[in-house]
Every structure is written in structure tokens, then in C-alpha cells.
Amino acid sequence: MVKAVIVDDEIHARETLSLMLNMYCPEIAVVGKADSVEAAYHLIKLHQPDIVFLDMELTDGLGFDLLKKFDKLFFRVIIISAYQEYAVKAFKFCAVDYLLKPVDPDELAKAVDEALSQALTDNQQERLNALIENTRNTSRNDKLLALKNSEGTFIVNTSEIIRCESDNNTTTFILADGNRVRVTRTLKEFDELLNGCGFLRCHQSHLVNQQHIDKISRFPTPLITLSNGDIVPVSFRKRKTI
Amino acid sequence: MFISLTPQVTLIIAETIVFAVAIIYLIYSRERLKKRILRYEEQALLSQMNPHFVFNSLTAIQSYIFRNEPHTASKYLASFAKLTRLILEISRTELCSIEREITTLKLYLDLQKLRFENRFEYTITVDQNIDPNSTFIPPMLAQPLIENAIEHGLNAIDWLGKIDIRYTFVKPNLLLVEVEDNGIGIDKSNESQTRNGKQYKSLATEITRERIKNLKKLGNHGIKLNITDKSKINSNASGTVAQLIIPIK
Questions:
Q1: Which residues of B touch A139 (CB under 8 A)?
Q2: Could you tell me the CATH number of the domain that includes residue B181?
Q3: Is residue B219 a part of any domain in this protein?
Q4: So what's the ipTM on this one?
Q5: In a domain, B184, yes or no
């Protein structure tokens, strides 16, 4: 049996989720429900659940405050949120598992399956810490971005990214330390995600970090030279924006 | 005395007049455009239902579906639809009758009562000398204030919440709308939000203030909003009073 705790300040939300889990994820036993950081903390310590469903708004604080209380997260976290778009972007940025309210039953079943199949040794905690860090520093330009591929999840600071290059449906990140990380997601997705972090889509297949631009040459063809010596082309349409 | 004008002088005068008319016309059409933009802004602000309310209400409806209470679920869903429809309709008009305003507010309050499991009660009173059918006001100015009372004032209390909404004339043609609650009071609420690290600015109050600013620019100059913590008036009292003063044409 998989043990789960539901933490949400709205009684209807706790009720619904518990009933949905009953119906769609019979392997899960809901061992407790809480509406505040304090109550949830004690409940989790007492029951040692495998999964915690966590809302962001709690009666005495934020969902993050609960996570900060644990040195080591021994349970999977699935964030449940009624928040708007900006929060969803924050969750995607750090590749944390989340569901939106009202919860779609199919998405719930899928999220639970995925959470249970991932070993606890993956860096869930790092990703959640990155999310907390990003939320604390909303004004800062650099953020922590989680890059997920078959080898694992890498957390990189956006200021360490020199450029991204697309190849079909994959995106390769070229980092300041010389490492390359390949992710099976489109450049378009990252272009949207990194909007506001000082990146420039200079070409259909290229996204560059403006901090790392060394030189822009316009003649005979426009090219951007980056801090690591890489040279990327600028598409005709983007000529005016650089 | 008659002054004879040379053709040149006549021409200069004529040109000046044409020029002045053109400038006046330009200023006038600019002003008209500004007002139109303000009206659109006003409509946009008005039709903004708080996403928190929307999604939590929908979740509450979902809970009745899973609890196998189709009747309650349907009632709740129908109320939600009625409210959405009314807000959509109202947001296309600049003024609405107090009667209609109250119908909308009641729907909203009843939905919130369901969501908060009847942890509060409310009353709406209209002074005898007001005819709710023929008194027109800018719609839904009070709604965000009620939302604040519920979400921030009454949410964390362990006694029965009360919201009183009153419509009275302070002077002929000067309407006072009051939203009073017995919650923790705006000062304490702000304090605890900051302590919890929720840099949560009240979207509701911001919308109301923005709308009042717009309405003033559109010619409704006398409109005013005061929000007072009741403990400032009486140290034994707890709660918040929001007062809206609206001139009636």
C-alpha cells in the first residue's frame, strides 16, 4: 500500500482529491489530511507517507514553508495549484510535478504513476529547492532551470547557459563550463520558458544568452560571436532586432 | 469704427481661424479616444473574476460530483453559470440598477458560502428611501470589497463570520455603500500576510482603486473609497468597514 497525505486549505479540495484517489488510484491509501503547515508537518512525521499532495496556499503560510521544514524529503511531492499562468511557468522551469485545480482524473492517475516509478534517489529535492529559490528571487534575472533527460535532471543557472541549439525536436544546451546537455523538448518551449531571462532568439534553431554575446558582426552576413568562441547565424527576419 | 483690411491681413486671419479649429478638433478627438480607452479598461477590470474564486468554486463543484451528490453539484454549477452570465452582461453596461447589483452579489455570496461551508452569514439592506429599480450605479464596485472581507477577513477566524452590506443616502444624490465584516480586521490581515511571506497584494482592492481612478477621469468625480479597521474606532471591535461614496446623477 502506498501512503499519501493531502495538504490543502480548502476542505472541498481535500475531499475531492481523496475521493478521486479512491476511485482512480486504488493502490493509494490517504492516511491524513491537513490545512496548515503546522498540522501537515506533524502528520507527515507521524505517518511517513510516500506521496504528499501539496497546495501552495495554506492557512498559516505557503506550501514551500512546509517543504523547508524537512532537511531531507523522504516522500514524493505533487503540487496541486489553482494558481494562474505565472505559477505554472515556475513549476515547468524546475520540472516539478504539479496538477491544476480542478484536477483532471487522467492527469492525476498519470502523475501518481510517474511519481511512484521514479526512484527517490533522483533529485526531486534539488528541483523543489530550485523552485523555492526562484520564487524568492523574482526580481533577479538569473534563475535555476531544471533540464531533464534520460541521464537525469540537471539544475543549471540561466546565467551559465551560453546558448541553445535545436535539432528536430531536441534542444542542446551549451554551458559556460563546456558541458552540453541534450533535452528532448523543442527550442520553442525553452524560448517561451526563458522569456524574461535575457535570451535572444536570433535564429529558428538558435537561442543565445545576451550576457554571453561577445561580438555582433553585420557584414557580409550577420553573425553573433559568443563568450566561448561559438559563432551562430542571425536569420534575415531577426536582423533588425539585434 | 470700421477698419478696412488689406487682402493679406484677411488671409492671415482666415488661416489662423482654420488652424485653431483644426487644433481644437484634434484635441477634442484625442479626448474622445482617451475616454473610449478608459471605458474599455473599465469593462476589462469589471469582467475580471478572481481566478482564485473561479478555480476553487469549480473544485468545490467537483467535490459534490465525487461525493455522489448530483443535486448539490448541479445547483452549484447553475449558480456559477448564472453569476458568470450576469457578470458578462453587466460588464457591457456602464451603469446598472441597485436591484440587479444585489442579485449578482447574492449569487456570489451564496457560492462563497458553499465554498466556505457556511462559516459566515450575510445581510444586504437597502434604505427605505432608495428605489433599487431606478437608482443606477457603476456595477460591481462593492464586489471586490466583499471578496476581501471573505478571503482575508473571515478566512482564519474561529467564530461565525458576518458580512453586512448597506445601501443608504448620505445626502440626496449621494449614495453610501458599506461593506462591514467581523473578521480579523484589515491591519492584522495585512500583518499576517507579510509574516507568512505571502507578498500577496490584494488584487481586489487594487482593481477597485483602479476602477475609481478611471471613473473619476470619465467624469464621476465625487466617487470615493475608505477602508477602516474597526479596532481604530473602538478598541474592543474586530473587523473591517469599507465605505464607497457614489454620486447619483
A1: none
A2: 3.30.565.10
A3: yes
A4: 0.70
A5: yes
In a domain, B62, yes or no: yes
Q: Which residue has the cell 497525505?
A: A5
Does residue B187 lie in a domain region? yes
Would you write out chain A's pLDDT as a tens digit for each of its 242 residues?
Answer: 899 999 998 889 999 999 999 999 999 999 999 999 999 999 999 999 999 999 988 888 888 899 999 988 889 999 998 876 667 888 888 888 889 889 999 999 999 988 888 765 568 888 888 888 888 877 777 889 999 888 888 899 999 999 999 988 899 999 999 999 999 999 999 999 898 888 999 999 999 999 999 988 887 888 999 999 999 999 888 777 76
Q: Do the Cβ atoms of B137 and B98 come closer than 8 Å?
A: yes
Q: In this complex, do A11 and B117 lie within 8 Å of one another by their Cβ atoms?
A: yes
**Of B62, B155, B197, which has the smallest distance from its Cβ to A16's Cβ?**
B62
- Taken in order of first residue, the domains within chain A and their CATH numbers are 2-135 (3.40.50.2300), 144-241 (2.40.50.1020)
CB contact under 8 A, B60 and A12: yes
Q: Considering only the beta carbons, identify the residue of A10, A15, A60 that sits closest to B56.
A: A10
Q: Domain total for chain B? A: 1
CB spacing of A102 vs B115 below 8 angstroms: no
Q: Using one digit for the tens of pLDDT, what is the confidence trace for B13-49? A: 889 999 999 999 998 888 888 887 877 777 777 666 7
Choose among A12, A83, A100: nearest Cβ to B115: A12
What are the helix (H) ranges across chain A? 11-24, 37-47, 63-68, 85-93, 105-117, 124-136, 187-193
